[in-house]
Amino acid sequence: MNTTLFDKDTAITESVLNTIAHMPTTSLPVLMADDFAHRLSDRDFMRIAVLLAHKGYNEGGCPIGAVIIDNSTRCILGKGHNTLVQESHPYNHGETSAIRDAGRIDFSHTTLFTSLSPCDVCATLLYMRGFSRVVVGDITSASGNEALLRSKGIQVDILEDLNGIELYARFRAEQPQLELEDWRGVAATDAKKEN
Amino acid sequence: MNTTLFDKDTAITESVLNTIAHMPTTSLPVLMADDFAHRLSDRDFMRIAVLLAHKGYNEGGCPIGAVIIDNSTRCILGKGHNTLVQESHPYNHGETSAIRDAGRIDFSHTTLFTSLSPCDVCATLLYMRGFSRVVVGDITSASGNEALLRSKGIQVDILEDLNGIELYARFRAEQPQLELEDWRGVAATDAKKEN
């Protein structure tokens, strides 16, 4: 008996991907069996990362999300989004959030999908934890650390998601100080200069 | 009326510093008024970082601690210790733990005391968040990123704590695989090679 919500005949729609994005990682087996995970393409995983970015935006936070999958099974091992605002967390970006969610696993057989090009801290964490592959969904809004990751032996693929790029551009226009804090800390913002 | 436990006449003993180490940061005003914090020396703050490392070790974790203080008031703004084991957290080192504890503050007027020389991720986070000063309590067990921090304009001081160095050496001898995982991830450990 198949006890999961999504099976081999389920169409992969935006609603299906958004349900996956919002479900706690440990509860994902409630949604999908392994054979369903195998049907998800790289573009689908990037959509989940972007839908996590939307979740963060809707919570009043910075819209960046990330998903980590096993290269063989395609199962999701970790996912998350930026929580600078939501947790008052000064460096929990999409990537750090997804890695924290995955916990103490061997990242050398995994791929991380991030909705935005990684910052220096996240790029360093990606090579220090031995990721084999990183897929970047937006090098239009920011870029630069792809070369560092490649120099460390990580396969880096660009798979831009136009909706994600649009969302990040909207956020940057609406909240430039928050965006600056997310990259460079309170020390870099006008709020500091005014104090 | 002075309602704090420690006042201007309290001797700064190991027990006093250990109580400070264990008290949640937001509850530190219960222990000490501002004038007490001013009496604590750099060496005292490093002792607190090392006592946090001992706390982590006693919990079965990696013994590295860190403390963040305001440069002017000398008040503790954040502190913590490595929680790789305790939280199954793949990158919560002493420094990341203390920065998470401090939250969304301006780190440009703060000093971070770490019981061990920072890894690549923590060193990157320290300059990305604009710390003005970092004090390192152990460059015997590990070192290397002091030069990077200085190149980013951060004042780096070495203030070795022999008890902290001894604790870290004991941990390294007892749990070499755990120590390796803490620096380089599961991908670098024997556990991975055996799978």
Protein chain pair with the most extensive contact, residues per chain: A-B, 33 and 33 residues
User: What strand order characterises the main sheet of chain A?
Assistant: 2-1-3-4-5
Count up the domains of chain A.
Answer: 1
Question: What proportion of the residues of chain A form beta strands (DSSP E)?
Answer: 5-15%
Total number of helices of chain A: 10
* Helix content class of chain A: 40-55%
What characterizes the major β-sheet of chain A? Answer: 5 strands, mixed
CA(first)-CA(last) distance of chain A? 63 Å
The helix/strand series of chain A, from N terminus to C terminus, equals HHHHEEHEHEHEHHH
Which structural category do the helix and sheet elements of chain A fall into? Answer: alpha/beta
Radius of gyration of chain A: 16 Å
CATH topology of chain A: Cytidine Deaminase, domain 2
Total strand count of chain A, please?
Answer: 5
Q: What is the architecture of chain A at the second tier of CATH?
A: 3-Layer(aba) Sandwich
